[in-house]
Specification:
Jelly Rolls; eight-stranded antiparallel sheet; single chain; alpha+beta; globular
């Protein structure tokens, strides 16, 4: 149960197990924890695909980023303050407010995608299945975690497993982004079921020459689309040559896949 994108190792605790491609959690003792994360984290996004054992549980943490002592944390939490509703859990509710989102009704019968976005100005946004959940709010955050000062928990709200901190259900995927994803990026991740990489990450992997080539291609595409728009045979009719050209240029994203 290790990080598929980076180098973070996870350890299963209290009987947590991997079965049928998911992390199974009993709500009694089982959870997973990572080793310390070697990143400076302020703005961030927490994201998970989850299925609940039941909708009546209260306070279980799905995915949590905490300091190594478990005293300071931000987490995706189910129904801690309000029954059947998602919230951004935090130490003594320091950054927690109600999203005023709808009651969860289907997460016990199907996989649900939940994401929390923590902006650098303290704004916290929530999404369910790629769509806005409730209302964003201004918090006192974000919390700053230095390198080797934080870790991830799956299935445990924070600290030592006890009381209602533990979640009962399954987690198929969980992700931490060290950036605040946009609504469009959240939707892309949801629709691709996590098989998606933010533009900032794959751009960082490009060489200077590749970035230059990409910029040149974007200019050529924009110029061609402008030419097609200005030289259409008839704005109200289909232009076969324009359609062909657009079909070709709509494949431009494939150019960047390596």
């Amino acid at each position: 149960p290790d990080d598929q994108m980076g180098q973070i190792k996870l350890k299963l605790e209290g009987g947590a197990k991997i079965q049928d491609g998911a992390l199974w959690l009993d709500g009694q003792a089982g959870y997973a924890r990572s080793e310390p994360i070697n990143s400076d984290i302020r703005e961030k996004t927490l994201e998970a695909w989850v299925q609940l054992d039941n909708l009546n549980q209260r306070g279980g943490g799905i995915l949590s980023l905490q300091d190594l002592g478990g005293d300071v944390f931000d987490a995706i939490v189910f129904a801690e303050q309000e029954p059947h509703r998602w919230l951004a859990g935090s130490n003594v509710f320091a950054r927690t407010q109600s999203f005023q989102g709808g009651k969860e009704t289907s997460a016990a019968n199907e996989w649900i995608h939940i994401a929390l976005v923590y902006e650098i100005d303290g704004t916290i946004r929530a999404y369910r299945n790629g769509e806005v959940y409730g209302k964003a709010y201004q918090s006192s955050g974000p919390v700053a975690f230095g390198p080797k000062e934080s870790q991830l928990l799956l299935g445990n709200r924070h600290g030592a497993p006890s009381g209602n901190r533990l979640f009962k259900g399954r987690i198929a995927q969980a992700r931490l982004y060290t950036k605040a994803l946009s609504h469009e990026e959240i939707q892309a991740s949801f629709h691709h079921q996590g098989d998606w990489i933010p533009q900032s990450e794959w751009m960082a992997a490009f060489t200077e020459d590749e970035r230059s080539q990409r910029a040149s291609l974007e200019i050529r595409i924009a110029d061609t689309e402008k030419f097609l728009a200005e030289n259409s045979l008839n704005p109200g009719l289909s232009n076969p040559w324009a359609d062909l050209a657009h079909a070709f240029f709509n494949l431009k994203e494939l150019i960047y896949v390596r």
